Each structure stands twice: as structure tokens, then as C-alpha cells.
Amino acid sequence: MSTQGTASGLALWADAVRHDRRAAFGAGVIAFFVLMAVFGPLLVGDPTELVGVPMQPPSAQHWLGTTGQGQDVLAQLVVGTRATLLIGFSVGLTVVFVGALIGVTAGYFGGRVDGFLSLLFNVFLVIPGLPLAIVIAAYLPSGPLTLGFVLVIAGWAWNARVLRAQTLAYRKRDFVAASVVAGESSWRIVTSEILPNMTSLLVSQIIGGTVYAIGAQVGLEFLGLGDVSAVTWGTNLYWAQNDSALLTGAWWTFAPTGVAIALVGFGLTMLNSGFDEITNPRLRLERAWRGFLLDRGHAPGRSTPVVRENV
Amino acid sequence: MRFLLKRLGFYALAAWVAVTLNFFLPRLMPGDPATALFARFRGMLAPEALDALRETFGLTEAPLVAQYFTYLGHVLKGDLGISVAYFPAPVLQVIANGLVWTLFLAGTALIVSFAVGTLLGVAAAWWRFGRVDTFVPPAAALVGAFPYFWLAMVVLYVFGFTLGWFPLGHAYGDSVAPGFNIAFLADVVRHAVLPVSTVVIATLGGWLLTMRNTMVSVLGSDFVGLAWAKGLPPRTVALRYAARNALLPSVTGFGMALGFVLGGSLLTEIVFAYPGQGYLLVQAVRGQDYPLMQGIFLVITLAVLGANFVVDLVSLWLDPRIRDSVS
């Protein structure tokens, strides 16, 4: 049961990228930015070096123009990718890890443990995340660790809630009951019976967590809560705003970074929904059913078909 | 009634957590918080201001528990300390000035976005695989991938700077005096168009998708089939049967979205130099005005908790199952 779950999870991913246009698009975009993060800084110059006249529009020499301080926008964009994606992916992983730890514990053990942990994540869900992250970050020394820490504090609760519900559903299933009767330890049941079955959910949560982390991180850095001397996408926008890019019409100092952020976010979302289509039999079935009806010249109904035993 | 009491208890607990977090935050700073505060503000603050700050946060020689209760007492009395940047104005007064603008901005945006997004969701599910359904959700997903404040910058650049249709910032112009008259209100609306539209554009997709997906599954249920079989006009089936029942998850999501929308509108305010909480917050962050920062956090949290309670009341009214399950 368990090994099969993991293997089919990974195989499904490869399948999704091969067969689903959206997943392929998402994977392509993410691969591009990851390559840019790894090798990009070797190809462009020093992003903090003052290379020309400030606020110059894009030209042959500086493809994306110069910033308010005379730095190369392209170099800043490329170099900023590394720190931004690194924090994004690590926070994405961490929020799901923390969420799984608390959510699965709550769902598996139930009773008072569940009562307490559910209360905990519900409280964190209702406290607005961004203001919370801001007040905590303001007290800590600015830097990537602080950013990561506050993003995890503000973002773990949603994952815990979803994973608790999923664990509760599995807890009632026969294969878990069988393991309990067989005398397996709780740790073993959780790690090798329940978690492997949630592989696809966990992966999609990690992707969602990464989207959240990149957006929130850029927001905090835009406020000046990151390390403003570092080069990241968020600090690029911070400096663009600080140098009054808008009021001087210097669109090239903020437009490319925003497009890059959106492309990464959109790519991740596409990857997720393409994957959902592959792993969710209902959606797959619907597509086939629609094709079948359209081939015969019938209009498909409005609702997703539901598989019934006697059909 | 029991449901409401339970929810009230939960919100009280959440408020207590927020207040307690607030108390411990200054103590997160390395070293003795009182000394750290003093070192940070030396030269910036009059000694009496610093004493007031210490007193509010209970940063005295007393044991931690005593300090905690001092702080709780101050919060309950509405004393959140003295703002450093707006010295000697109390934090609560500074916040009150900005709160109206934030509530106006976030509230308008939330209502417009909810209404338009939900209607589009109904349309997308009703004319499934039609034009709305094919183009609007992916477009909304793409737009939703941009950071709020970046959209704000683009909107401001295009419609404010390049085309000059709307003012570049602030809540009202210098030429009108605040007051309850047409000229002032018209000016406020003109200044609010861009920030409100930004938040609406950024959040529309969420409402649309929630409504569309619920509506799609509701349309497959038996009572909708029965409505068709009775020969009711399509409009009645769509709106009175399907949409009404599909609305519940969106209403429940309303409370969740509040904190998110508020966070986004804080960032939007900064771009538009809109004089609400977000603008105050960034000034507080940059000027290291900790009392103001924490006060804003507390007030925003309480506002979100209050709004969540209103959402509870609405869903209680909409969904008889909640009423039946507890009474």
C-alpha cells in the first residue's frame, strides 16, 4: 500500500507534465527560473555596481534600463531570482512540514490533543497574517532567516487544517484500522500508512506554500522589512518605490520584477492544476465524457458527472 | 445561541493570543528589552516619552507576571502607549485617524469584489465551457499571481501618471476641505477609484472560482433537477435554486478572506500614499515606532475578529443547519 502510493505519486507527476498542457507550461516556466537562479548570476555583472546614468530607459547597453541609482535592472532581476526562489521553496517546504506535524497529530490522535491543536491553528488562521509577520519581523534582525521565520509563523495554519481533515478521513479507513489491529506503532502508521497516501496532497500544498511564500516575502521586503542591501525581487521593488520610479515614469525599474514574480506564481499554479486534473479521477472522467458527447453531437450537461455504482 | 457563545469564546481567545503575542514581542529583542528600547531611541525621544513607553509595555523591574498584568490592564483601558513618530499623540488616537480610511478602502473593495466575482462565478457555471468560463478564470488566475502592490504600481502608472485620469495619491485633494459636502465626497470617490479597483482586480478570481466550483456541483444535485422538471423558468432555477444554495461556502470564505484582503489593502495604501493603517504601518516600521506598529497590529486583529463574528451571524441566518445542529 505505502510504497505503491509513493511510486505512483512520482509517476503521476511525470505523467502530468508529459500529457497536460498546463502542467508542461508550468514545469517549463519553473525550470527556466530555477536555471536562472542557479546560473544567471554567472552571466550578468555585479548588480550593485553603478554602471551608468540613473533612470535610463531600456537600451542596447542596458537591456532593461538602469535603476534610480544607476544599477543595471537586468542584473538585479537575474541575481535577485536566487534569494527569492530559495526562500520561497524553503518556506513552502517548512510550512507544509509544520502543518503536517500539527495537522496529522491532531487528526490521528483526536480527543483532547485534537481539541487543543485545532484551537491553535484556528486562532492562527483568524489572526491576519501580514500584520502579524510585520510586527514580528520588525523586532528581529533583518535578513533571510527572519523573513523565513515570520513567513512560517504566519502561514502554517492553513496546511495544518487541511491535513488534519485528510488524516481524519484516512483514520476511519480499513487499512489503517488493520494496522492498528496488527499492533503497529502510531509512528509507523502515520509515516508509512497515512502520509504516503497523502503524497499528492502534500506536493500540491508545497507548491501552494511556495506561491504564498514568494508573494508574502516580496510584500515584506517591499515594506523594507528584508535586508535592503541584499538583491532580491522584493528589495528591487522597494528601491523602485523609494526612488519614486512611478512619479518619474521609470516603469522599467518595477515592471520586469513584477512580471517575473507573476510568471513564477502562475507557473506553479498551472503545474498544480494540471496535476490535479491527472490525479483527480473525477476531472479526468469528465473530460473523457465531454469528448464522448461532443463527438456524437450532444451538448454536455452543466455539472460534473458523478460515478454511480449501477451506471 | 450556544453556537454564538462558542464563537464569541473563540474570538476572545484569539484576541487574548494577539495581546499576549504583543506583550512578548518587545522581549524577543536580544538583551534586556528596556535597555534595548532605550538604546534605540536615545537622542530621538524625550526621557518622559521613553518612560511612558516603558510603563505601557510594563518594562519595569517587576517580575514578568506582574509586567504582563500591567500590560493587560493598559490594553483593556485602551491605552496602547504613545506614538514615537507622532509624539506626543497617543497610539490609539493616531490609529483612529487612519482606521476610517482603511475600513472604507478594504470594505468597499471586499464588497465590490465579492459581488462581481460571485456573479461571474454564477455565469461561468451556468454557461459552462462558454465564453466567461473559458477566458475569465485563467485570466483571473494570471492577474492573481501578481503581487497586490505591484498591480497598484502599474494601475497608478497607467491611469494616474500616463493618462492622468485619476489623482496620484492621498485620500482627498489639498483644494477641498474635509466635511460632509458633495465636493469633498466626490473628491474622496475620485481618489478611491484606483486603490479600490486594484484590490478588486487582485481578489476577484478567488470569489469567482469558489462560486463557480460550488455552483457546478449544486447544479448536479437532485433538487435542481426537480426545479427543471417542474418547468420553472431558467432564471429561477439558476438564481433562486442553484446560486442561493451555492452561496454558502463563499460566505464562509468571507471571514477567511478578510485578513487577506486587509493585508493586501495595507500594501496598496502604501503605493497610493493613502492615509490608512498600511501607510501608518510602513511609517511606523521605517521610523521604528514600535508602540504604533503593535497598536496597529492589535486594532487590525480586533477588526478582523469582529468582522468574522458578523460573518458567523450571517451564516447562521443563511444556513438553518447550523441553527438546528446546536439548539
Oligomer: heterodimer
| pLDDT < 50 runs, ≥5 residues of chain A | 1-7
Main β sheet profile of chain A: none
Total number of helices of chain B = 13
The secondary structure category of chain B is: mainly alpha
The residue ranges of chain B in which pLDDT falls below 50 over 5 or more consecutive positions are none
End-to-end CA span of chain B: 7 Å
Question: What does the largest sheet of chain B look like?
Answer: none
What would you say this structure looks like, in words?
The complex is a heterodimer of chains A (311) and B (327). Chain A is an all-alpha fold. Chain A contains 12 helices and no strands. Chain A has helices spanning 2-19, 21-43, 73-109, 111-126, 129-139, 144-171, 174-181, 186-194, 199-222, 233-242, 255-279, 281-295. The longest helix of chain A has 37 residues, at 73-109. The two termini of chain A are 28 Å apart. Chain B is mostly helical and 327 residues long. Chain B has helices spanning 2-24, 33-41, 47-56, 64-76, 91-126, 131-144, 148-162, 182-219, 222-229, 234-271, 277-286, 290-318, 320-326. In chain B, α5 runs parallel beside α12, α6 packs across α8 and α7 packs across α10. The relative contact order of chain B is 0.14.
Layout of secondary structure:
The complex is a heterodimer of chains A (311) and B (327).
Chain A: H1 2-19, H2 21-43, H3 73-109, H4 111-126, H5 129-139, H6 144-171, H7 174-181, H8 186-194, H9 199-222, H10 233-242, H11 255-279, H12 281-295
Helix pairs in contact in A: 1-2, 1-11, 2-3, 2-11, 3-4, 3-6, 3-9, 4-6, 5-6, 6-9, 7-8, 9-10, 9-11, 11-12
Chain B: H1 2-24, H2 33-41, H3 47-56, H4 64-76, H5 91-126, H6 131-144, H7 148-162, H8 182-219, H9 222-229, H10 234-271, H11 277-286, H12 290-318, H13 320-326
Provide a short characterization of the protein structure:
The complex is a heterodimer of chains A (311) and B (327). Chain A has 311 residues and is an all-alpha fold.
